[in-house]
Amino acid sequence: MRRRVGALLYVIGGALLLHTGTTYARGALARSDARAAWERAEAQRAVRESRLIDFGETAGNVALGAPVARLVVPSIGLDEIVVEGVGDAELNAGPGHLPGSVMPGDAGNAVISAHRDRHFSTLGGLQIGDTVYTETAEGRSSWIVTKRRVVGAGRPALFSSEEPVLTLTTCWPIRYVGTAPDRLIIEGKLIAGE
Amino acid sequence: MRIPTLSFIVAALLAVPGASAQFTGLVTPPPRPAPPVEMIAEGGAVAADTTAAARMSDMKAWVDSAAVAVAAQAPQDTATPPPVVIETPAAEPAPQQEVTAFQEGAPAPDTATALPALLLLGAALVAGGAALRRR
Hints:
The complex is a heterodimer.
Chain A: H1 2-40, H2 44-52, E1 58-59, E2 62-63, E3 67-73, E4 78-84, H3 88-93, E5 96-97, E6 109-113, E7 131-136, E8 139-152, E9 165-172, E10 182-193
Parallel strand pairs in A: 4-5, 6-9
Antiparallel strand pairs in A: 1-2, 3-4, 3-7, 5-6, 7-8, 8-10, 9-10
Chain B: H1 3-19, H2 37-54, H3 59-72, H4 115-134
Helix pairs in contact in B: 1-4
């Protein structure tokens, strides 16, 4: 009897491990693909190409899942390729640019979100005053972190702006058992763009 | 190496990345708000009034006079315990609505994921299964 229960636990646990492992592996592959596409086409050309490709489901002019920017935060060792969209598939591949928000560097609020257990696992270490760099088809921008707050998952968190603003979001607490109830919102102000 | 032992080792290794997103040393609760100054002052007044009542000899006269006083100066009556204000807890936040595009005042995109918890649970089940089969 005990061996049968053990075998049952084996099977259930194995299925869970297989599911999570497959999801993480798919995300790693998609992340690698996005980075390869970005580097191969040298940023600007990649973005222009992605805008011409029709994947069927699009958000504005940019195909969902297409690499649209590069996000670099030296202070926390973050260097990620941002893809368009914040659906499950996009967030599994990398930080997602929220459709409808502006591209980093443009006037307005550019929103980038990612999972706490993957691409933004170190975002909790980002402090006010740290520098963030973004690179898009339009050019490179430097940002300085000016705000850091935690809000409930369903609370208003995103607001439009006339000035260029970069907003990074992830789940909070970073270390939490289960689905995290809050969101970490970090805002940056543009200090230099080219 | 026996299969249960090997499974346990593999499960433990697989769970390491996910487990790191599950545990924290300390989750600090929000600071408890300090009691309002008015409540502290009224508490002191209640104690003083009670002491004064114990010294009175004619309790009936005191009760009658107190009743009149209460009726006339109900708002300023410090002998009456402050009303108990039951603070209803803030309503539970609504379930995260799906955010697919930027809107003014929208919540942050739903980045919550149960994958680390599932990974940890799976590793625990495999380890438990290995332990049961070993006996």
